[in-house]
Amino acid sequence: MNDSPAVLTEAAIAGLLVDTEPYLSCDECFERIDQYVDRRVTDPSHADPGMDTHLAGCGACAEEARTLEDLLRQDAEVTSTADTENGRRE
Length: 90
Description:
Elements: H1 10-16, H2 26-42, H3 49-57, H4 59-85
Helix pairs in contact: 2-3, 2-4, 3-4
Protein backbone atom coordinates (compact mmCIF):
# COMPACT_ATOMS: atom_id res chain seq x y z
CA MET A 1 0.00 0.00 0.00
CA ASN A 2 1.25 3.47 -0.85
CA ASP A 3 0.61 6.06 1.87
CA SER A 4 1.93 9.06 -0.05
CA PRO A 5 -0.79 11.46 -1.25
CA ALA A 6 -1.62 11.70 -4.93
CA VAL A 7 -0.40 14.84 -6.64
CA LEU A 8 -2.84 16.69 -8.87
CA THR A 9 -1.56 18.79 -11.73
CA GLU A 10 -2.83 22.31 -12.36
CA ALA A 11 -4.64 21.04 -15.47
CA ALA A 12 -6.40 18.31 -13.47
CA ILE A 13 -7.48 20.78 -10.81
CA ALA A 14 -8.73 23.24 -13.44
CA GLY A 15 -10.72 20.45 -15.09
CA LEU A 16 -12.35 19.55 -11.80
CA LEU A 17 -13.30 23.16 -11.11
CA VAL A 18 -14.87 23.93 -14.50
CA ASP A 19 -18.37 25.36 -14.25
CA THR A 20 -20.57 22.73 -15.91
CA GLU A 21 -23.58 24.95 -16.60
CA PRO A 22 -25.26 24.52 -18.99
CA TYR A 23 -24.98 20.78 -18.35
CA LEU A 24 -24.51 18.43 -21.28
CA SER A 25 -23.93 14.69 -20.85
CA CYS A 26 -21.36 12.74 -22.85
CA ASP A 27 -24.21 11.06 -24.75
CA GLU A 28 -25.69 14.44 -25.68
CA CYS A 29 -22.24 15.71 -26.63
CA PHE A 30 -21.63 12.68 -28.82
CA GLU A 31 -24.95 13.26 -30.62
CA ARG A 32 -23.97 16.86 -31.43
CA ILE A 33 -20.21 16.63 -31.89
CA ASP A 34 -20.11 16.17 -35.69
CA GLN A 35 -22.21 19.25 -36.35
CA TYR A 36 -20.35 21.25 -33.69
CA VAL A 37 -16.91 20.44 -35.10
CA ASP A 38 -18.04 21.08 -38.68
CA ARG A 39 -19.27 24.53 -37.66
CA ARG A 40 -16.07 25.26 -35.72
CA VAL A 41 -13.96 24.37 -38.77
CA THR A 42 -15.95 26.64 -41.09
CA ASP A 43 -16.41 29.39 -38.47
CA PRO A 44 -13.80 29.38 -35.67
CA SER A 45 -15.84 31.96 -33.75
CA HIS A 46 -18.86 29.62 -33.56
CA ALA A 47 -19.96 29.17 -29.96
CA ASP A 48 -22.21 26.56 -28.40
CA PRO A 49 -22.18 27.14 -24.63
CA GLY A 50 -23.24 23.60 -23.76
CA MET A 51 -20.65 21.97 -26.00
CA ASP A 52 -17.91 24.45 -25.07
CA THR A 53 -18.51 23.84 -21.37
CA HIS A 54 -18.66 20.07 -21.73
CA LEU A 55 -15.50 19.90 -23.84
CA ALA A 56 -13.63 22.08 -21.34
CA GLY A 57 -14.34 19.56 -18.58
CA CYS A 58 -14.41 16.21 -20.37
CA GLY A 59 -11.08 15.01 -21.72
CA ALA A 60 -12.56 12.07 -23.65
CA CYS A 61 -15.08 14.18 -25.55
CA ALA A 62 -12.52 16.96 -26.08
CA GLU A 63 -10.10 14.43 -27.62
CA GLU A 64 -12.87 13.19 -29.92
CA ALA A 65 -13.59 16.77 -31.01
CA ARG A 66 -9.89 17.47 -31.65
CA THR A 67 -9.55 14.28 -33.70
CA LEU A 68 -12.63 15.10 -35.79
CA GLU A 69 -11.40 18.65 -36.33
CA ASP A 70 -7.98 17.40 -37.44
CA LEU A 71 -9.61 14.98 -39.91
CA LEU A 72 -11.87 17.68 -41.35
CA ARG A 73 -8.96 20.09 -41.75
CA GLN A 74 -6.83 17.41 -43.45
CA ASP A 75 -9.72 16.57 -45.78
CA ALA A 76 -10.14 20.25 -46.66
CA GLU A 77 -6.41 20.54 -47.40
CA VAL A 78 -6.46 17.45 -49.65
CA THR A 79 -9.52 18.74 -51.50
CA SER A 80 -7.96 22.17 -51.93
CA THR A 81 -4.70 20.68 -53.20
CA ALA A 82 -6.54 18.42 -55.65
CA ASP A 83 -8.58 21.34 -56.94
CA THR A 84 -5.45 23.44 -57.47
CA GLU A 85 -3.65 20.60 -59.24
CA ASN A 86 -6.64 20.19 -61.57
CA GLY A 87 -6.51 23.88 -62.44
CA ARG A 88 -9.69 24.76 -60.54
CA ARG A 89 -9.74 27.43 -57.89
CA GLU A 90 -12.54 28.03 -55.44
